[in-house]
Amino acid sequence: MTKTQIYKFGGASVKDALAIQNLAEILRNRLRNNFVIVVSAMGKTTNQLETLLSLKLNGQEYSENSAILKEFHLEICRALFPDEHVIFPKIENYFILLHHELNKPISKHNYDEYYDRIIGFGELLSSRIVMEFLCSQGMLILWQDARELISTDSDFRFAKIDWVRTRRNCQSQLKPKLEQFPVLTQGFIGADSTGRPTTLGREGSDFTAAILAASLDAGSVTIWKDVPGVLNADPKIFKDTTLFQELDYEQAAQMTFYGASVIHPKTIKPLANAGIPLFVKSFLNPNESGTKIHSLAKTESIPTFILKKDQILVSLKVTDFTFIEEKHIHLVYEQLQGLKLRVNMLQTSAITISIVIDSQLFKLEQLLEHLKGDFEVRYNEGLELLTVLHPDHDTIPALLDGFEVLIEQNTRNTIQIVRRVK
Ligand code: ASP
Ligand code: MG
Predict the structure, then answer these.
(1) Of 37, 100, 178, 242, which residue is most buried, by most CB within 10 angstroms?
(2) CB-neighbour burial class of residue 96 (10 A; exposed 0-12, middle 13-18, buried 19+)
């Protein structure tokens, strides 16, 4: 049997009826058995579900937002299916289930678990709609609940994979189906050992594709995007971008670490370990070659620009007239780890530790609370972190035009700048 191929379609590639028709065209001549299709929620659905959750958390009315979200899905279906199609009652069902979940009590304490029960509805809806549409186009496809495959721990919202159980599930449940039919499933969602829904972190559908690939010993993964492949900068922010024809796993992983949003940061490792190539291609120009990420002896070191928005700079000054030592850094990292906050940049001076972190609901408050006993804490919000890999130093001043620089860090191959609009 030929090796499994995995295609992942993100939110933008299923954002409306035209996009779904385009997805079907991409699959029409490529689909065969031993093929897995992973889909994300449609368009901005996940953000809208997050809005529903925050309304619920604040005791506000969410029924109007939920009605808008339902109408968004129904409208897509009206363009794709005849009136009497089974997809319409299916969508009604999903929204009844969603409301049933939303009627349960929520608090700051059960928020993460609650979040995971709600947020996966986006993927469930989208995978149903895409599956039904492909079937209506004569492509017979099986629908698979990803929560039966992706086994995780109970770390809600940031669940870690139980690789052994996931592999077992894939081999015993997915493989036999794949011998006969292509299978369509959801990205981003999983379940813990007691069956409670979990999620893998925002934008986690790419990671799902990689997990399934590793667990099925797949031949390749292709991520279909609205960009031509992996570029040396985000074309929505920077002009004159260059496409990488090929990238080494390590360089790609580094780019995602610094915040390149083209692929989810956790995607590369399982593929690199198993030597499975990752293609990043444009769903707008599916016949173009895009970028191939695999093992390369040598990579081009063209300057690469990565911008992370919504950053917080936290400055921690020791209060006991000592200097910064390892124990201080250890203390800070311990608190950050407890809150699942990742450091995007770290700088120390004689008496201060500066860290740059993503802005996340509740987290800053809690971090400050934990650290104020040991440090004098100050912070700035609403910042941007610009990372330049393989910098061409002449081009840096232009990047700072109109910005105030708060801190900057240079190493031979990397410049990091924390900036805000003047
Ligand atoms: N729908 C989820 C999100 O928007 C997962 C994904 O798109 O990869 O975060
Ligand atoms: Mg998405």
Answers:
(1) 37
(2) exposed
